[in-house]
Prior knowledge:
The protein is α+β, with helices and mostly antiparallel strands. Helix content is 40%, strand content 8%. The chain is built from 12 helices and 9 strands. The strands form 2 sheets. Strands 4-5-9-6-7-8 form a 6-stranded antiparallel β-sheet. The protein has a 3-stranded antiparallel β-sheet with strand order 1-2-3. The longest helix has 26 residues. The N and C termini lie far apart (59 Å).
Amino acid sequence: MNRAAGAGAAGLAAITAPIVLIVALLGGLTAVAAETATGGVDATKVPPLAQELLPHITAITTATCPELPPLWVIAEITAESSWDPTAYSSDRNGGAAGLYQLNEANWTTAGGRPWETSPPPADADVLDARRHLELAIPFVCANLKAAATHLQATGKPTSALDGMLVCHIAGCSRVTDSATGVPTAGEAGCDRTCADLVANYLDRVHTLAAQYSAEPGPVSVDDLPVPTPFDGVSALCTADDPTGGRCLTPATRHAHDEIVRVFGQPGPGAPIRSAGCWDEHAWNPDSDHPRGQACDYFPDTAGRFPEGQELQNGWRLATWLRTHAAALNVKYLIWQGRFWSPDTADTDGWGRPYTGGGIYDADDATGGHYDHLHASFEL
C-alpha cells in the first residue's frame, strides 16, 4: 500500500454531514452515461476495473457532483489504492480501506456499515467496488464543494480540485489554515514531512490525470449560448478594461463581456481562472494588448500546463470563440502551441503550429500559450 493512501484516509477532515445518495437515479443514468461524455477520460488508458466502472462513475458524478470530473475520480483512486477494491492499510486510527482508502469513521459518515474487524471482512460494503463509489464519491464531493467555497471567498490561488486533494491527504484544515490552500512546511500544522506528502500527492494525481486524459482538442460547444454580435462603432481604446488595464476597444470589451456572460466571472473554481486584457507588453511592439485589442484567459494557474478539466475548459473557450469569430470580430487566437485566424487553414489539427515569432519560447507554458488562450479582436 502506498504511503499516500494510508495518510489520506487518516487525514481526511470530517467536515461533511451524512450524505444520502439516491441510488435509484444511478440505474437510469448508467446507460446514458455510457454513451455520453466521460469527463475527458481515454478509457483505453485506465486500469481495467476503472474502465469497467467508468459508466457507473460518470452516472454518479452526473447525479450527485457534476463539479467532479470522472477523470479525477479515476486518477485519485489510482493514487490511493491502485484500483484494488480490497486494499487495506493499517495505522493508529484503525486503518483505511477500499478504493478511496477511507477510514471507518468517514465510511460510516458517508452511509456505509461499520467494520466488524480490522481489516474489514471480505463481505464488508467498503470493499465492494460499486457500493464504495456510490458512497465515497458524494463524500469526496462534499470536501470539493467546501474547498471551492473557501477558496473563492478568500481568493487563494489553489484550484477547488486541488483543495479536494489536500482535504483527502492531509485534512481540510490544511486548506483553510494555509496561505494558498496548499500547506508549506511550518504552516497549518504541517511540518516538512507533511508538506512533502501533500506536494507529492498532488503531483501524483495530476500526472495520472494527464496520463488518463483523452487527447485534447476542439470540443462541442453546441450546449453553450450564442453570443450577441458586436454592432457598435469600431474605435480606438476608449472602453473600460474590467480586468484592471488602461482601456479596451469597444469590440474587445464586447467580446470580453460575452465571454463572461457565457463562461462566468473568472475566479477559482470557474472555467476561466483569471483574465487580463490591456498591458504595455513593451517586449513585443506588435502586440495587440497595448492597443486594447487583446485579452488572455487562463483556465488554470499561470505558468502551468493545464490538464484534465482545466485543459478541456480552455478548449471549450477556444472552440466557442472560433465558432463565433465573425460575431465577435475575432482577429486571431493562440492556444496550446497553435495559431488560428479566420484566414488560417488547419494544418495537422487546429490552426497551425505557433512559433513564438522570435519573441516567445513556444515550448514554454506561457510562451507557447499553453497556460492561457490569447484572443485578439479587430477594431
